[in-house]
Amino acid sequence: MPTDKINFDYSTPKILQIKLTGAWLMGSGIPAISEITSQISSRADISQITFSASQISKWDSGLVSFLHGVIKECRRKNIKVEKKGLPEGVCKLLNLTEKNTERIAPQKTEEEPFFQRIGSGVLRFKESVLSLLGFLGEIAVSFHRTITGKAYFRFNDFMLIVQRCGADALGLVSLISVLVGVILAFIGAIQLRIFGAQIYIADIVGIAMVRVMGAVMTGIIMSGRTGASFAAELGIMQTNEEIDALKTLGVNPVEFLVVPRILALVVMLPLLTLYADFMGILGGYVISAGVLGINPVEYLNHTQSAVKLGNLWIGLMHGFVFGLIIAISGCFRGMNCERSANGVGEATTSAVVTSITSIVVATAIITFICQVLGV
């Protein structure tokens, strides 16, 4: 590789000036970075490197790539690099390259002490809770403005979200609910066959599906399907600065984007829960009548007598709460997404994890309250 394009000046103590001359083009050959590193290694007193590029006739990306490697090597050896002597275009490209490098591959930091990590975690949790409370406050204000007709609310967008949350999810909800009913029927048969009481499979399947399982399975399905979709959509809009554009136009993004999604999921999830209850009972009915040899009419009679109206209302309450949890989790993570592709992925994952965890916790709380109240 050519070496006549680089000259070294040691006239200033502790400073190495690199003089670049000639044409720095990919086609004409670029010197190896080892020429610079060998000079640095041979002089232990060097603390700073400067450049002189006044004699460069032509340059392209080859010069930028060369200088990027030199700067990276100097930083590894804690040597300061001064870029003032380089062409203005080269400096801009180097700054852009360094920003992208820091974003994609951040430098490793020293591990924090144990108690410092605990403190940082507590502070992050506090900030997250305060941010969530602020978001809930914005939702409450936006709902009030929507009810009073002051919000910017597009009914066509709302109906489209309703379709995505309801009709488009029927296939998946049907499959999972039928299989859950089948599983409950087989599990009940294992124990009830010992006592010759297989007919009570109808009671187990009916009560379990209507009271809890229908709502829980539907909630989990919608967390992975719709909650993740909400987080990804709003996260991409945040990354593309579309939400900032709405604010600039005077449109409240919570009213325009969040409220329709919450309303759609709160309305549709109880209805999907009813549908899941029916499909789960149907799955148990098919297995009981077709495989376990139970009389179909007797199975239906037992289901009707076992499933009370109170169980149905408890299941619908589960569905309402789960719809609220999934919508808020997805929208909250999407609206607070970092403006990068990695941030969108993290927001989507966090929305699903938060929704499912909250659903399990809410189920335990509602079940405990129902037990205390005797319903």
Structure notes:
With 375 residues, the chain is α/β, with parallel strands linked by helices. The chain folds into 2 domains: 6-104, 2-Layer Sandwich (Transcription Regulator spoIIAA); 133-373, no CATH class. It is built from 12 helices and 4 strands. The protein has a 4-stranded mixed beta sheet with strand order 1-2-3-4, covered by helices on one side. Strand 3 (48-59), helix 2 and strand 4 (80-81) form a beta-alpha-beta unit. It is elongated and about 100 Å long. 31% of the residues are buried. Mean pLDDT is 85; it is low at 102-106.
Summary tags:
375 residues; single chain; elongated; 2 domains; 4-stranded mixed beta sheet; 71% helix; Transcription Regulator spoIIAA; alpha/beta; 4 strands
Distance between the termini: 85 Å
Structural class: alpha/beta
Q: What is the overall pLDDT average? A: 85
User: Helix amount, in percent?
Assistant: over 70%
User: How many alpha or pi helices?
Assistant: 12
Q: Can you write the helix and strand succession as a string?
A: EEHEHEHHHHHHHHHH
CA radius of gyration: 32 Å
* Shape designation: elongated
Beta strand count: 4
Largest sheet: 4 strands, mixed
Strand order of the largest sheet: 1-2-3-4
Beta content: 5-15%
Explain the layout of strands and helices:
Blueprint (H helix, E strand, L loop, with lengths): L5 E4 L5 E10 L9 H9 L5 E12 L1 H16 L3 E2 L6 H17 L9 H34 L7 H11 L4 H26 L5 H39 L2 H7 L4 H38 L5 H11 L2 H27 L5 H33 L2
Parallel strand pairs: 2-3, 3-4
Antiparallel strand pairs: 1-2
Helix pairs in contact: 2-3, 4-9, 5-9, 6-7, 6-9, 7-9, 7-10, 7-11, 7-12, 9-10, 9-11, 11-12
